[in-house]
Structure formats: structure tokens, C-alpha cells
Design a protein that fits this description.
The protein has ten helices and seven strands. By secondary structure, it is an alpha+beta fold. The strands form two sheets. It has a five-stranded mixed β-sheet with strand order 2-4-5-7-6, with helices on one face. A two-stranded antiparallel sheet has the order 1-3. The protein is elongated and about 120 Å long. The two termini are about 40 Å apart.
Amino acid sequence: MKLYQSLSSVGFLKKSYAFKFLFVAFVGIHIPLIGILFYVLFGSEHASPVSILIWALILTLLATGITLLVLKRLIFPIELASRSLLSYQKKREIPLLPVDYKDEAGLLMRHILEMIQSNEKFLNEKQDMLYLLSHDLKTFTTNSQSLAQFIIDENAAEPIPQYAKLIHEATTQQLNFIHGFIKLLKIQDELLSIEPKLQRVSLVELNNQLAVQVSQQTQLKKIKLVSEILVNDYMLWIDPDLLLRVLVNLVDNALKFSHPESEINVVYQVKNDQLFISIQDHGLGFELKNSSVLFEKFTTEKKMGTANEYPTGLGLYLCKTVVEKHKGRIDATSLGKNQGATFTIVF
């Protein structure tokens, strides 16, 4: 950057990036010529053609190397702009780019910084608006749900309680959707701020935490969670807490579509230097042709659980987003309707 800064202080080079390159190339080209002239004029009086040729070749190679090195340093502003964009894309870090230069490279850095700042402002305002909107919708829906519950508790004459029950069910679905939407926003924010790093994850401890977090749901439906841990720990590009949230989501999904007093199997194993974590249930299942659609945001393939649990259409999408962000993949398989389903994470 110092070379670019020095050349930018020269009057006739200040406003043109191309002129800086031409100036460096011009000087580099003339170094051999100047060297030969000095050699002929001030060197040996009887300089032979061979010695002049050798001297010219040496100076040409030297000048070429120096020129290429200087030009490499001169493109640093472009490299800096590129790295800044990549850093913002991956980590959402706002770069510190110089904005005082008048040439094309300086304008590029200034425009990139202005674009990033404008985009960041827009994202923050949009996020704030969505949170506010979700919060207000949640409040309105909760009020409607409370009024419906009040009507039900009053034991009014039919068909009023029946209408109140329908209102209560509809508002419950709305609340579930809003909860899922807020969860989506939060996880998207977290993913933007997290840079995956390789670390050792204890799968035994992870499974213990999973069992604790889903214990209430398993007890309610009298479903047994059976774990098989064939590997104690593994090096992964994901934070253990984030992986735990993915597994809780997948087990919650399996619980939702499992019949009471059934089993859910969680298996941790390594095959061909890859870690496989599979969650298998014996519930409603799905048609295999619809497996990819299950991971879409607000998927149309959502259905009610075995205890009429309402799906948001976001849980599996969130799992897929987190896993793929951390260098993994997630697959879903089923033998068909009422044949259960298996969701497998592969790192």
C-alpha cells in the first residue's frame, strides 16, 4: 500500500491508476537502455559486442523482475478490495478501506465501502422491522387466543364454544408460525456472525445433552430415545452448541411424527473418514420423491403430527442451513407413508 500511496502523491499520477502502471512499465523498460549507455560511455574503452550483449541481457532480466515485483505491489488496492468483499460475505465484517484516493482504484475502494455500509444499514433496519412486526403479530394473536380461551371457559351455549375452539386452534397455528419465523431470523443472524473452525466435539456429551433437552417431549408421548454411540469424539467444523440445536430440531421433528410408546433411534458412527449421525423414527414417514422438498423454507409438504402438533415448515430448513454452512450435508429417507423416516447428517 505504501508504493500506491507514494505514487498517488505525484501530481500527474494522482488521478489515474492506469498512468501509475504505465509509469512503472516505462521506467522498467528504460532501465536496460540506460544501463547499456552507461556501460558503453563509462565502462571499458574496448567493450566487445559480446560483453554488451551479456550486460544488456542481465539488465533486461533484472529490470523485468523489479518491474513485475513493483506492479505486483501496485495492485494491492485491488486485492484489498477483493479481500474486504470476501470477508464481508463470509463474516459480515465491515472493512477499513481508504477513501481519500482519486484514481480508479481509490474510487473502487470507496464505492465498495459505501456499498457495504449501505447494505449493512439496510439489513439492520430490515431485521429490526421484522422483529418488531413479529412481536406485534405475536401480541395480537395472543390476545385473540386469550379471548377464545375465555369464551371456552365460560361454558356458553353451543355453537359459541365450537367457534371459540376454532379461533383458538387458528391462533395457536399463527403463534407457532411466528415463533418459527423469529427463530429463523435469529439463526440467520448467528450464522452470519459465526466462522466455522475445526474443533474436537465430544459425541458422548453431546448425546447426553440431547437426551436432557428432549426428555419432556419424550415423556409426554411416552417415546423411548435409544442412542448408539460408536465413536466417542470427532473433529468437526461446527460449534457443539450449534450441532446440539440441530439434533434437538431433528429429534423434535421425529417426536412430532412418531406414534406414542414407540422408539426413536440416534446413531453416531464413522464410515470412510466421515461422521454419520442418523435419527430414525417409526412414525408417519413420507414418499421418497418428496425428500428434497422437506428441507425447503415454508415447505408445502408439512403435515400435522400424530398428536395434532402443528408444523411451521421451518425446522428442517434451519437444520439444513446450519449443517451446510459448517461443511456437512443432511439427507432424508423413508420407505413410504407410515413406514417411518431417517434423517442423516454427514460431516
